[in-house]
Write a structure and sequence with these properties.
single chain, mainly alpha, Serine Threonine Protein Phosphatase 5, Tetratricopeptide repeat, 19 helices
């Protein structure tokens, strides 16, 4: 692609007022994940041709990838206004409705419209499949994923179909799809992460660990991968490694409620550091409260009150030591 990009650069240097060349380069830059540069070329094309719906559509998709959702919505709606018969802007707007504005009805209408306009749009089926999956309409999700894969063997579609199979406890099919996703894109961190979860459930811990390690190697800023690897280390009684992973997860995402909860369990049950355990349980409770996850809040309330109540009655080291043993036994029973 670098050679093609160089050729486009030369063409633009020769014809700097041709909007089609900027759109062509923007499309290439998008495929290279150079989204900021892609958006700049879209803007240049629009400055040369203000009614260029292709430039607006691509700019909308680019802003969506950059998580500039308001700008993405403006660009997508402008593209639809200029040309209501182009599928891409409907897909982009559907994604914004689904993932940002949480307006699933509008999202579904846009995906349906995109498919009506282009029945061979793998992207439209794929994104509608995600929406159906999130709505727990699994049969419809599977039908759309199958259609998307038939039209375009995309690694992300295999990964998402694998997630669906996993949710249905069809582990062999899930594993086959994760393997295919990785075969198509060996640098796809999400598929390694998901396959790690599956291997963990199958008690193939070495494979689970290898997949989490690979996911982290490919995306060192993925807090959930560190958290999940920490859980695996904890299960294997590698508690210092677990603690290090929970620390890293929290460093990457200071609002990661589950990581605080998991780290608290290490402080409490393994390190016997009740002060730090309480701080983490209380932080986790605050975050779960903000998420309105009240069942976990109630569990944490009991945990916090129990520690406070028991420790307030303990005065000597011997009784404190006995108390710690009680905690370990209680937690073993709950697990």
């Amino acid at each position: 692609m670098s050679k093609v990009l160089e050729q486009l650069n030369n063409k633009i240097a020769s014809s700097p007022n041709d909007p089609s060349l900027y759109i062509e380069r923007a499309d290439l830059l998008f495929k290279l994940h150079q989204y900021k540069e892609c958006a700049d070329d879209c803007l240049k094309a629009i400055s040369l041709d203000n009614d260029n719906f292709t430039a607006y559509g691509l700019m909308g998709y680019t802003h969506y990838r950059l998580k500039n959702y308001d700008d993405a919505l403006i660009a997508a709606e402008k593209a639809i206004l200029l040309n209501p018969n182009c599928a891409l802007p409907y897909i982009v707007r559907g994604n914004i409705y689904s993932n940002y504005l949480k307006e699933n009805g509008k999202a579904l209408a846009d995906y349906n419209k995109a498919i009506e306009l282009d029945e061979n749009s793998a992207m439209a089926y794929y994104n509608r499949g995600i929406l159906y999956y999130n709505l727990s309409e699994n049969d419809k999700a599977l039908t759309d994923y199958n259609k998307a894969i038939k039209l375009d063997e995309n690694y992300a579609a295999y990964n998402n179909r694998a997630n669906l199979y996993y949710s249905l406890n069809e582990n062999d099919k899930a594993l086959a799809d994760y393997n295919k996703a990785i075969e198509l894109n060996e640098n796809y961190a999400i598929a390694y992460y998901n396959r790690g979860i599956l291997y963990g459930d199958l008690n193939e811990n070495d494979k689970a660990l290898a997949n989490y390690n690979k996911a982290i190697e490919l995306d060192e800023n993925d807090a959930s991968a560190y958290n999940n690897r920490g859980v695996l280390h904890r299960y294997l009684s590698e508690n210092d490694k677990a603690l290090a992973d929970y620390n890293k997860a929290i460093e990457l995402n200071e609002n990661y409620a589950l990581a605080y909860r998991n780290r608290a369990s290490v402080y409490h049950e393994i390190k016997h550091d009740n002060k730090r355990a309480l701080a983490d349980y209380e932080k986790s409770r605050e975050l779960y409260q903000n998420e309105s996850n009240f069942s976990i809040v109630r569990w944490l309330d009991g945990r916090i009150d129990e520690i406070h109540g028991r420790l307030s009655k303990v005065t000597d080291k011997e009784d404190k030591a006995k108390l710690i043993l009680v905690y370990q036994m209680l937690n073993m029973q709950k697990i």
